[in-house]
Every structure is written in structure tokens, then in C-alpha cells.
Task: structure prediction
Amino acid sequence: MSEREPKITLAEVEHVARLARLELAGAEKERMRSQLDVILGYVAKLGEVDTAGVPPTTHVLPLVNVMREDEVRPCYPVEAMLANAPDAEQEQFRVPKILEQ
Result:
């Protein structure tokens, strides 16, 4: 039995973790490498499937768009929208600042 080459290296796992802003310990990196290697192996196996006669689809179930047509309709009156607003200014909702400088 021959040992196959891993599909992802530890350096690549560290790179992905850095991009995702994840701090992984040594054991976590190896576990992640092993799990990603299995996933990538499965994806590669799917790539071997002959799909020549299979039409492209976006979903496995036949779905019908249940959205209504996008039609221009009159807006709700501004005064009515702001009637119960705790604080309004110049026809807009006024809310507390939540972001720092």
C-alpha cells in the first residue's frame, strides 16, 4: 500500500488560518490539515465523475420563483413611518451612535 501525498500542506493551513484570523495551536493545525485533506480528496473524487450527459442545474429540486414581480408602487407616507419613531430628524430615523471613531 502506497502512501499518497497530502492535498494540503501545513503551511497552506497556516495561511488559510491567518486569512481567517484564526489562531490554531500545533495539534489544531494538524487536525485541520487532516480534515481539509479528506475534504479535498472527496472533492477530487467528485471531479472524476463523468457528468457529460448531465444538464447543469442550480438546485436538486424543481423550484418555482415565489417572488412577486418587481413593480413600482407608491411609498408609505414618511409622516406615517416616523409617527412612532422615538427620535426623528429631517424625515429620517435618528439612532444612537454605535461605532467608535
Notes: Strands lie at 88-89, 92-93. The chain has three helices and two strands.
